[in-house]
Amino acid sequence: MVSKTGKSNKRYAESEIGTIKKDCRECIRIALIYPNKYHVGMSNLGFQTVYHLLNNIEDVACERSFLPDKTGSSRDVITTIESGRPISDFDIIAFSISFENDYPNLLTILEKADIPLHSSDRGTPHPLIIAGGVACFLNPEPISSFIDCFLIGEAELMLPRFIDCFDPNINRKSLLKNIVHKVPGTYVPAFYEPTYNKDGTVRSFEPLLDVPVNIRRTYLKDLSQVSTCSSIITPHTTFDNTFLIETGRGCPHGCRFCSAGYVYRPPRFRPFPVIAKCLEQGVLLTDKIGLVGAAVSDFPSIKELYDYINNKDIRISFSSLRADSLCPE
What we know:
The chain contains ten helices and 13 strands. By secondary structure, the chain is of the alpha/beta class. The protein folds into two domains: 204 residues, Rossmann fold; 83 residues, Transcription Regulator spoIIAA. A six-stranded mixed β-sheet has the order 2-1-3-4-5-6. A three-stranded parallel β-sheet has the order 9-12-13, covered by helices on one side. Helix 5 links the parallel strand 4 and strand 5. Helix 3 runs parallel beside helix 6.
């Protein structure tokens, strides 16, 4: 009997363009999870980017999973879109987390997968639980008891290094210690001991082993060599059948209400030819293109981009535009 989750996964998979299915028995198997429902997760360009990056690594097979559409039944096992396998069968469970409000969903998913919640209760038989994404950059501590390893940095830089270090056949503690030493930006909560003041604020944060005292976010200094765009097109998202393209990261304005100007410092933009190449790729799949950035109108080549797309039979949407940087065109 197929579960409700399995039926939903099949329906989603059948409607997708660009799904990656790798059949390699000796691969590192990764279940990439967005801790919210499918239509939210597949609207997230960062999530899609990680999926594409991992599957571009030869010895890695990455599959996706999400919070079930209905979480009321305890009988529904959390399975992946691509193969329908339970996430507990994978070597690594990787959470991509953009919002703190999704932290409780992470626990729901682990519980439904019959995986011990606390990292201290897990061992060799269980998948390694890792997490990354902007929510983890900002404040990983609320879920630090449940995560074996945080990757505090940009995926293009960190994931290849992490995979190079991963070995499912060695002791979990030794594995994590090796990763910490070889992959800058790695945070293993079990290797640190926080102490608190009477009011609950952090007094100190001391390493228990020979690991870095401070964990520094790693980032790409130059975006010209990497393109970030949708790897899968689906109608079941907030951006129905839209091909998303990232124009840049960060924001030069630093508004106090917005984390993008701080988390993704320094602001970096892609050269126009990189964006144009993504556009040509996107128009082969759909007539709906979405330009993604903290302030797309600050893109240095915005006029050149406008001239390029003006005569094309496509519909353009923008994630964010600043009125003070718009021109008459």
